[in-house]
Write the structure tokens for this entry.
Amino acid sequence: MLNISYFKTVFFNDREWETTTVDTTLSEYPQFKRDLKRFSETNDQLNLRVLVQQWQHTAQLLNQDDLWYLLEQFQTSEEMTSADLDRWTHLVLNELEIIIGEFQFCRIAS
């Protein structure tokens, strides 16, 4: 769940920063979703780790600890089976769908 007071603290009540962060996350999500699925399906360990690390930074910026934890599971993906990769991919995408939905709601409400 998005914490609006956290945003106001982190971005010093700067609406432009908030808007930029939300818009960037919304615009980059579709490509992330495609890449995450593709790298998981093809078991592309190197690109999967790079992609996940980039989004871990986003999760930290957004104060999304649950998402960060789910993404962290991919850092050990060499030890995961294909079924594990499918499961973690599904969990990450479900969590992100919730966050993206909240962002879209915030954009409409503002």
In short: The chain has a mean pLDDT of 85.
